[in-house]
Amino acid sequence: MPMGPVPTPLRAFRSTQSPESSRAFDGDDGMDGNADGYFDGQKRGAPLRGSSSSQRKTPKNRDTKPSLSYAARKASVTVFVGDISQVDRDDGNREVVNRVLMRFDALRRRLSQMEDAKELSNGIIKRADLKAGNLLMSKGIRTNMRRKIGAVSGVEIGDIFFFRIELCVVGLHAPSMSGIDYLIVRDALDQEPVAVSIVSSAEYGDVEDGDILIYSGQGGNFGKRDKQATDQKLERGNLALERSFQRGNEIRVVRGIKDVANPASKVYVYDGLYKIQESWTERKSGCNIFKYKFVRMPGQPVAFAAWKSIQKWKEGFSSRVGLILPDLTSGAENIPVSLVNDVDGEKGPAHFTYFPSLKYSKSFDLTQPSFGCNCRNACQPGDPDCSCIRKNEGDFPYTSNGVLVGRKPLIHECGPTCPCFPNCKNRVSQSGLKVHLEVFKTTDRGWGLRSWDPIRTGTFICEYAGIVIDKGKGKQGGEEVENDEYVFDTTRVYNSFKWNYEPALLEEESSNDSEEEYKIPSPLIISAKNLGNVARFMNHSCSPNVFWQPVLYEHNNQSFLHIAFFAIRHIPPMTELTYDYGTAHSDEAEGSSALNRKKKCLCGSSNCHGYFG
Predict the structure, then answer these.
(1) pLDDT digits (tens, 9 = 90+) for 499-528
(2) pTM summary value
(3) Sheet order of strands, 460-463 included
């Protein structure tokens, strides 16, 4: 029979946490009532303490297998969608982990959209992340329920998470509040807790230095203004860490880092496997606190160390190896875009004029005349009198922090002549870059684009800027267009994928919110060969992390179509940004000239089609 804490869905609750906080609980110390931070609503027996029989010394590195039976949890899960089998729920893989996370965030965004549209507060803190996580786990949409020591299947070192509950749904760290996760191992004579993962945040007294982490134990009310500090006890998570120190088992470490886009929140990065090298007690506020020295296992990919390097770059560009230009936009963007080559001696891409948006021909009319809204302040979610919201079928296309809720056939934004405020939340794609980007030289695909900052799912990255080309010229296959490698064409065939939430999860009828096929009023071809922005440097991938979305807004009584790029999933810093270039229609692909235009794909994805174009 399994023992120790079991990850279960969160229950509905009220919280005094600031509504600006977009995290499940960050507490690395024990929480009152249930120090392990699991919302299982169950009464627990006496906690495991150092004074019990489990305190008996255990030989270091003892090879004892954990008891990991979990039949009781299987029986309590109601499966909602059949595409996550019991096998995948028990032990995931990369595809399953990505799918679970995408479904979680799609549901969270929809819940956030619904909450934003409510005019009156009911006193319950808006925690769409907790609601989404609770709902998915209750319906069996989760993975890696088989808890174990060591790496978690499908979760890679360097993966980032913007919500603590995401760690739960993929099985990386089960408790939603506590910083220490453990399980109970038993042998013929004894049973004892063993730590499997920790979440570290420097604000709780943890000291971070490269591959070494000094971690503080849980409990004792340290850092709580309204409670008296007491000695920490050798029980629960603290006892598990002590036993892991004696055994020498590997422990997963997740680092909590301040979110540059929202300083009140954190981003969580999985930093790989560590072992505890030392443990001791210190006096703080007149009380004892446990300390543990974690040392990272060698030979693992860099993760947290990359974040530390980026911090140094932001302090001064001189520390960036291979820097060519600190800002290739020459001030055209509100955030500088660095140009870097640490691969070879090339000094930069071919000359082009940097321009942050589209240029239409004076004689080119894309759509019929259109008029903007009449809002005098900022457009408000749920306002039936806002014409721009009505064009979006009554829903604001973005959450309050500017994240895209879902792919739509066409998004209508407020235009330059709308009387609403310039900072209106319905102008996301017009407000410039949101993250610190870098154009860099790749090893085998020319120049590429990546970000110094972590990017949240649904975040606007940039639009595809350039010169709009007449469709007739493009279809004729003129020499200029045919030889242009910097063309974006909406008429190409793009791989379909599911990104939006599932209405049935919220007992909603399927509506246009779930439609992800674009409905563009007129084909659009853009050339960024001679004039363009950072989007011209994004390479193709058959498994991209960025997608394009048509956005329409009016200017001078005319509607103009733009192509905006958004993040498909969370993107760690220094990860190349890629999108699907698409392929020509079959009727346009006939003949040797079209075949010659196809290019060999070097994306390296397991789903690579071998070519694009």
Answers:
(1) 999 998 988 877 644 578 898 888 899 999
(2) 0.84
(3) 411-412, 546-555, 558-567, 460-463
